[in-house]
Amino acid sequence: MFDKILIANRGEIACRIIRTARRLGIVTVAVYSDVDARAAHLEQADEAWRLGPAPAAESYLRQDKLLDIARACGAEAIHPGYGFLSENAGFAHACAEQGLVFIGPPASAIESMGSKSAAKTLMSAAGVPVVPGYHGSNQDADQLRREAERCGFPLLLKAVAGGGGKGMRVVHDIREFDEALASARREAKAAFGDDAMLLERYLPRARHVEVQVFCDQFGHGIYLSERDCSVQRRHQKVLEEAPAPNLSPQIRLAMGEAAVKAALAIDYRGAGTLEFLYLADGSFFFMEMNTRLQVEHPVTELVTGLDLVEWQLRVAAGEPLPLTQEQVKIRGHAVEARVYAEDPEHDFLPAAGTLHYLHEPVSGAEISPAIEIRLDTGVRQGDEVGIFYDPLIAKLIVWAESREQALRQLANSLAQYRIGGVRTNLRFLQALAESAPLRTDELHTGFIEQHSELLFAPPGLEPSRVLALCAAFVLLTEPQTDSSPFAGHQGWWLNLPPRRQLALEYEAETHRLDMRSEPDGWWMTIGGRQHRLTAKLQGDRLQAVIDGVPLRCHLARHNDQLWLFYHGERFDVRLHNPDYEQQSTHNGGNLSAPMPGMISQIKVAVGESVAAGQTLLILEAMKMEHPIVAPTTGRVAELYYREGSQVSEGAELLRLEPEQEQETP
């Protein structure tokens, strides 16, 4: 076994690897970019070395720096985690040349499967069915267009070197093809350094089922159950579970054997995942092989009782597989939810910000010995979720004896998970875990789109109650300083003057609250209606009665920002001083950035007339492209930035004038 390893990654996966390495007595070396200088994985590792500036191309993708650090610190091996250089054959080669062990498959295996088109050709030759499409080397745009017409629509454009939904577009009509191809190529080039594309017939009702395989250098290969990863948004997984529900023993066996056969055919070593599309008639098609540890590996660990990172380390150190296929036992059911900084109500756009408030769910041991709850995370309260890397905050994984129990506990744990300071998908995940279609196994890759009305239900708390609860929290916690609007009034219940005014901004509107205190509570006038409220605060938990209705919620505050948490929902409210005067929200035709990012392409010029829905510029954030489109017909009056500019969320990007405002000659 190794004495010392370098972890060429960051965030939760770096913390995950450190946890196993520490248990095995292996010294760990972390690396970091400038924006990660206070990251959690640095505190957990034995050593930490700086890589460079924040952009991945200048830090986590710098092979030369990683190799220099490995030599300087005396590491024997490098664990790449997932993403970044984990599937880079050149890096695996470079490690071998430097006498370092790459904790992953040999470079030849990565090369065989690293190109999705080559992998499909290889699998087809091995007798594994593949999705119909075009996997050729001719990347001329006209050739791809002809192949698209031959394959038929809907069609999926995929980056040959890609993964994680990047460089991927669904095309429903030939008229969409050219723009979708150009956009997917730009995204693939930025993410993987390779803009080659393959085409596949899009199968919207298929399930995404993948098989975890492990091989050693002695020619042994086994599979460790399968996972269902059908619930996806933007072609990226959101919810994963093991074992995959409602598969016959014959299908499980066929998939597992096909996966091991494929891995052994390329002399594979270490952890790998074969991904398949599974149709209702029982047929399945090979999609791709991921030559690394998957984000969703914890669900496999919980149903097998195995530590896959330990297996990776042992196999890389030259040991045989710890178990045979017959010794692998599956118990219970595990479900993983990926907690992201993103905005589900706006097409899951990535979000950025500071985790000003963080309350994590309790462990399974505190609930029941028959429940296991695991949280894989790399962030703490006060940490920043930036624009340079994937916006994953944590993975919440639940194991129980049955799928029904696991989903129920997942929903409960998500309701306990509270984050303030950055938008998240927590409420969406809770709605997903609670949804009847999910619990009745109606799984396919279009699940979220099909059930969007159910998953994006309106808030469960009336605006007046949101405002009343926030007002009570403010009044119970307001520091009595000279700058406070309530300065000089100690002890709300007895000593404060009987009337107060408060202004709270909620859902882009400012609301004035008139309040009259009584010995045991308040009368509040909100929007012309009176409400009777009593409240008691214990820590961040508020117990209140509004108009005779008891309510329990949690609240947190950072400066003037308030977050109210109720049954898993988060309500964002901003506090204003009583003399606040509401300002107009009219922006005069300015279009703003929905998130922080970089302007990668400007597609219009000042003075140009544009149509409603036309793409005006491309904003790149978290390795994804986000088009900014014209909301209406008009003329571009001003452009406020150049290509390559970094912009913050809410920054005004350009100004449109209505057509009728154009001057006539």
Task: Tell me which CATH architecture of the largest domain applies here.
Answer: 2-Layer Sandwich
How many distinct helices? 18
Assigned CATH class of the largest domain: Alpha Beta
Mean pLDDT: 90
CATH superfamily of the largest domain, by name, is: ATP-grasp fold, B domain
Low-confidence stretches: 480-496, 578-587, 661-665
Distance between the termini: 80 Å
Tell me the radius of gyration: 27 Å
Count all strands and give the number. Answer: 39
Number of domains: 6
SSE class: alpha+beta
| Order of the strands making up the biggest sheet | 14-13-10-11-12-15-22-20
**Could you say what the CATH topology of the largest domain is called?**
D-amino Acid Aminotransferase, Chain A, domain 1
Largest sheet: 8 strands, antiparallel
* Share of β-strand residues: 25-35%
The percent of residues in helical segments reads 25-40%
Shape: globular
Any chance you could write out the topology, listing elements then pairs?
Blueprint: E1 4-7, H1 11-23, E2 27-33, H2 40-44, E3 47-52, H3 63-73, E4 77-79, H4 89-97, E5 101-102, H5 107-114, H6 116-125, E6 133-134, H7 141-151, E7 155-159, E8 168-171, H8 174-192, E9 197-201, E10 207-215, E11 221-233, E12 236-242, H9 249-265, E13 270-278, E14 284-290, H10 297-304, H11 308-316, E15 333-340, E16 342-343, E17 349-350, E18 353-354, E19 357-359, E20 372-377, E21 384-385, E22 392-400, H12 403-416, E23 418-420, H13 426-434, H14 436-439, H15 447-450, H16 452-455, H17 463-477, H18 492-495, E24 499-506, E25 509-518, E26 521-526, E27 529-538, E28 541-546, E29 549-558, E30 561-566, E31 569-576, E32 590-592, E33 597-602, E34 609-610, E35 615-621, E36 624-629, E37 634-639, E38 646-647, E39 652-657
Helix pairs in contact: 4-5, 7-8, 12-13
